[in-house]
Amino acid sequence: MTVNIFVxxxxxxxxxxxxxxxxxxxxxxxxxxxxxxxxNLLLPIEKLFTGxxxxxxxxxxxxxxxxxxxxxxxxxxxxxSIYFIGCLGLWEKTxxxxxxxxxxxxxxxxxxxxxxxxxxxxxxxxxxATPILDVMQTFPLFVYMLPAVMLFSxxxxxxxxxxxxxxxxxxxxxxxxxxxxxxxxxxxxxxxFGASYWQLLRWVNLPLARPAIMTGINQATxxxxxxxxxxxxxxxxxxxxxxxxxxxxxDFGKGAAAGVAVVILAIVIDRITQSFGQSARAKRTRVMxxxxxxx
Amino acid sequence: MKKLxxxxxxxxxSHLLLSASWGATPQWCSSDKPVKIAAITWESGQxxxxxxxxxxxxxxxxxxxxxxxxxxxxxxxxxxxxxQVWPEQWNRTxxxxxxxxxxxxxxxxxxxxxxTMEGWFVPEYVVKGDPERKIAAIAPDLKSISDLPKYxxxxxxDEDSTKGRFLNCPTGWDCEMINSRxxxxxxxxxxYVNFRPGTGGALDATIASAFARGKPLLFYYWSPATxxxxxxxxxxxxxxxxxxxxxxxxxxxxxxxxxxxxxxHYQLSFGVSAGFxxxxxxVIELFSKLQLTPEMLNQxxxxxxVKKVGADVMAxxxxxxxxxxxxxxxxxxxxxxxxxxxx
Lengths: 295, 343
What we know:
heterodimer, A: mainly alpha, MetI-like fold, 12 helices, about 85% helix, disordered C terminus, B: alpha/beta, three-stranded antiparallel β-sheet, 10 strands, about 45% helix
């Protein structure tokens, strides 16, 4: 005979009731908040992407890639692969996905970097925030996705929220790590010249932590892109729609075409953001080398 | 150890005893092959699956297994004979139609009286109001789909407020394509945005949210379904059903413009693989007799949602409360087995 050592506990029904009551009492308010976010951030960004002529977007991507990497062949290769997505007939959906990713990324950066800085400068905050970040990264998002739909309406807004929750932890962690790992002697030197907290942050910590922060942004971008399918499950349009449609319909071809487009986007964005991180490091070593030479 | 041996002996003994009552045991099951049943992704299908499994295990001495997967995957598996039973089959996908054409599968029974119902709905309080919740009827004259252009401001879309929003079927479902064509056929393209919710869960969450907040919503829904038993929905009238027009809406290969028609009522049945049918005529007989009324089924589904219990529990309760009806589906040998085994 086994002895039951577990005290029975149950919180699911009370949680359900709580969510329902929040929907009844605050649902209308939250829906209007979501409408404001939609009209002022998400839709303008989407119009920017879907409204611009394709050649402009392709050449912009080429230009940014060149600025980051200084490699002609690579930039042209990226332009060709983005052009290829258009040939697959997925241009509009790709732009919708990019817009969703871009909106999420803006929110991720605006929220994530300050939190990372705060965590680096205050151990107490770091102690409290670290387990929260663990929850954000591991808690199955299908669990909170549908309550989010009930609270904030279906479509892009809950999709962006889920994307931000999922992609913000690496940026916060890497920002904190980057600032913590800044050479203490350099910080001491700056302080001894009378640098205030903000001056230290602006001119020493952030520039030196830049490679780590860029890696964080790169990771956040990749994770945001990985969320496209999940986003389409709650009515956000984009490439995820085709993947989901292919999935429910046993239409491998349709799903694969959209999948290829996601992979191309991922590779291009990954290389571009990485090249900015690397070139920052390369530039700095060049500058420091030159400064050393002057002495 | 001793207990284990005794258990084994008892088990073997009962197994022999069961095989002895061969009258109800299909050949498929007496050769110890499990009956693989598709695990359906919606509640009523899950209930039919659990009900069938319960009857097969207790009445027909079969082993049953549930196999999970999306509708398309399990349907394909049924056609390829990897699954034996597909509960609550609607007979509307290409996979099933081709499978029937190639004699790989067969649809048995008429498991819901009157068949299915589907269409475009609004919450009842939009048309009739709800004095208890102090909701005024904001569209008392909204009767049919052709009235919708007048009411687009009520169902305004979040992204394009000059249009109304129609909440379509989830992406990739057959009803999504049919509804998209209906929007064109009813000439609503200028007034309504065709919004696809992505998944059934997101569709349900949006509907539940609108009902909880007492807000108007125009959406597609169907019966049998849990929400149908839970909320009061008002079906918008459509053009009369015409077979020719329905074909222009539902045929995937149709590229011409479609003409409006109501959706037909589908007969729901059990999909069975040809191999299983040949080796289990007893089960086929059961499936051909099994039938519930829509009230019974929606009651079961609403209760499952209120009590937060799974389809397996609901199937057991249904059998307990409707023993006579259940017995009338089975042969007397199977009923005998069932009385012995079901606890």
